[in-house]
Amino acid sequence: ATERWLADDDSSRLVLLIPAGWAATADDPGAEAALLALQQARCFGAAVVAAYGNAGDGAADAGRVPRGPLCPACFADRAVAGCAASAGPVWPAAGVQALPDGGLGRLPNGRDPGEVAPAVYGYGARVRPSGGELAWTGSSAGAALAAAGLAVTWAGLPDATGVAGADAALGAAEAIAAEAGGFLAPCKAAGQG
């Protein structure tokens, strides 16, 4: 995706969405290749949003899933050597749940964040035919919604391109999410709710 984007027009912006993940092992050559590709994208000015991962309540404590985020969200704290980017190569996004009182809560996904916590919780809602809202949950949905919110935020920064532009967009999206308790939705990023 990065090579195609650069070949087409390197002055545009690229938000890569990775709504899936895997539990990497120490000897996983695919993980190293993925990390290098994401670092390259970030150094060229792309912003990458990756799903944090889900697991049933208590699954990490029971040893059924590894602690921390799935990869590539697991790369969030990896420095991008030789690159001007202030953030790691990925922005980890988790899902939300609708609470009984109608509010929003962080999805209890059973993952202990370890060293890498989700940067944002993506939220989307649709109106149920019977009225009310139904939250889209899970980190894949959260990542897609956070990527959309990031893209809307970035669109509002017309001079923000390249690595500095991606950093500015990520910082602005994090500020919007911080004002909303860590939640980011495209309508929030557009200032509509």
Question: Care to give the gist of this entry?
Answer:
With 193 residues, the protein is of the alpha/beta class.
Q: What distance lies between the first and last C-alpha atoms, to the nearest angstrom?
A: 32 Å
Task: Find the structural class using helix and strand composition.
Answer: alpha/beta
Helix content: 25-40%
- Please give the order of strands in the largest beta sheet: 1-2-3-6-9
Q: Low-confidence runs (pLDDT<50, min 5 residues)?
A: none
Number of helices: 5
Number of strands: 9
Description:
The protein is α/β, with parallel strands linked by helices and 193 residues long. It contains five helices and nine strands, in the order αβαβββββββααβα. Strands 1-2-3-6-9 form a five-stranded parallel β-sheet, with helices on both faces. The chain has a two-stranded antiparallel ribbon with strand order 4-5. The chain has a two-stranded antiparallel ribbon with strand order 7-8. Strand 4 and strand 5 form a beta hairpin. It is globular. The model has no long low-confidence stretch (mean pLDDT 75).
Question: What topology emerges from the helices and strands here?
Answer:
Blueprint: H1 2-8, E1 15-18, H2 29-43, E2 47-51, E3 91-94, E4 96-98, E5 104-106, E6 120-122, E7 125-127, E8 133-135, H3 139-155, H4 162-179, E9 183-184, H5 186-189
Parallel strand pairs: 1-2, 2-3, 3-6, 6-9
Antiparallel strand pairs: 4-5, 7-8
Helix pairs in contact: 3-4
